[in-house]
Amino acid sequence: MSCQYEITQQTALPVNQQLPESLTWLQEELSTVISDNLFRPVRIRSGRQLSTVTLNGLPLINFGANDYLGYAGDARLVRASAKGACAEGAGAGASPLVSGHSNLHDTLGKSLSLLLGTDDSLIFPSGYAANTATIACLAGPGDLIVSDAHNHASIIDGCRLSQADVRIYPHRNVTAAAEILQTIPARRRLIVTDSLFSMDGTIAPLADLAQLAHDTQSMLLVDEAHATGLFGAHGSGLIEAADIASSVAVRIGTLSKALGSAGGFVSGHHTLIEFLRHRARSWMFSTAHPPASAAVAIESINLIDKEPFRRQKLAERAFQFRKKLTDHKINIGDAEAHIVPVFLKTPQEAVEIAASLARDGFFVPAIRPPSVPRNSSLLRISLSYIHTQDTMNALSDSIINFVGMRHE
Ligand SMILES: Cc1ncc(COP(=O)(O)O)c(C=O)c1O
């Protein structure tokens, strides 16, 4: 179905196209972005987020979405969205603190708590907002935050906002984290980690971090953005799979990836949620996310319960995909799930190989700084239940061909 809206507004102000003198420095900054091969064009997607997407008019098999279970374009969720909007309107109208917290948000909180086995949950406009506000609420001046070097930008920004003493430990190195916790004095301590890392597809050493939190009387915050719906017998995430639920003080996640919707959440003990309702600034001072998005997430949580075969199939196919790449000496680092990086030498190489893959019909984003540290670049392949084994095979053949050719 096509959905073209025409702009019908009558008033159009004359455009002032002069770049203000005070902003001319931006041109120089942008030139550097371009010459460093770090420019990111805007791609316009037409139609739903499905296994094939049309980007700038070109249909491509989509390996660039976090729609791991294939729910974002699912007709059942599209209907849930329409039903939610009919019941509770297009916009939430106010912050949750005032009158934006609707019946659907309330039901979603309960549904998330059931999925995660927690007391209570709080819905944020995005996962980014959930991380920044929550971390800044839990730590402040005089406190210590110990954070993995590969944590997501929203965690990094939350740490900065907190004004706590922030120490970064090398990726997944629990010994280094322990050393920091044992040597730096602090009023309170917070350990923060992604559970499945968004760029390199590795899994955090959750059991060891849980033990460390216990030994050092630290709060443990785990961001399950890329794991919710995908791991554990009930599909709640890697905390369930590692059997450490009772050791995780704060669980953060997003509705925007496997759940196919939008928005973020924090889940945990009732006291934590009550505290955040009185302190978390992005919950208090930002309009609640649309009720239709809450309806979508409620429905996708129901589907995660009913359709465990989706996560199981994805895990099997992802294993085969990774194995084939490593058998052909493609550098995927220590990836161990449905996010598969292909590490490359330069941003230019990443851009060129992504362009070659697009000519073969695949959309695979080239990830460059600042999404990854300086001097690193990669192709980030997001595998989804809606990719068949044949499609994944075709992509791995192309990667082996293009990357192999350059690295011989
Ligand atoms: C680990 C992690 N946390 C949080 C977020 C932010 O989630 P959202 O897209 O809902 O803002 C992301 C998004 O990519 C992420 O990768």
What is the CATH level 1 assignment of the largest domain?
Alpha Beta
Q: Give the overall silhouette.
A: globular
Query: Ranges with pLDDT <50 over ≥5 residues?
Result: none
CATH topology of the largest domain: Aspartate Aminotransferase, domain 2
β-strand number:
14
Give the bound compounds: pyridoxal-5'-phosphate
H/E element sequence: HEEEHHHEHEHEHEHEHEEHHHHEHEEEH
CATH superfamily of the largest domain: Type I PLP-dependent aspartate aminotransferase-like (Major domain)
What is the beta-strand fraction? 15-25%
Helix content: 40-55%
Count of discrete alpha- or pi-helical segments spanning 4 or more residues:
15
Provide the descriptors you would attach to this structure in a database record:
single chain, 408 residues, alpha/beta, Aspartate Aminotransferase, domain 1, Aspartate Aminotransferase, domain 2, 2 domains, seven-stranded mixed sheet, four-stranded mixed sheet, 15 helices, 14 strands, 42% helix, globular, binds pyridoxal-5'-phosphate
Detailed description of the structure:
- The protein is of the alpha/beta class.
- It has two domains: 43-69 and 308-407, Aspartate Aminotransferase, domain 1 (Alpha-Beta Complex); 75-305, 3-Layer(aba) Sandwich (Aspartate Aminotransferase, domain 2).
- The protein is 42% helix and 15% strand.
- It has 15 helices and 14 strands.
- It has helices spanning 25-35, 75-88, 96-100, 103-116, 127-138, 153-162, 174-183, 206-215, 238-242, 270-279, 281-284, 291-306, 308-327, 347-359, 389-407; strands spanning 45-46, 52-55, 58-62, 120-124, 144-148, 165-169, 189-194, 219-223, 250-254, 264-268, 339-344, 362-363, 366-367, 377-382.
- Strands 4-10-9-8-7-5-6 form a seven-stranded mixed beta sheet, with helices on both faces. A four-stranded mixed beta sheet has the order 1-2-3-12. The chain has a three-stranded antiparallel beta sheet with strand order 11-14-13.
- Strand 8 (219-223), helix 9 (238-242) and strand 9 (250-254) form a beta-alpha-beta unit.
- Helix 2 runs antiparallel to helix 12 (291-306).
- It is globular, with a radius of gyration of 22 Å.
- The protein starts with 24 loop residues before the first helix and ends with a helix.
- The mean pLDDT is 95.
- Pyridoxal-5'-phosphate (PLP) binds next to helix 5.
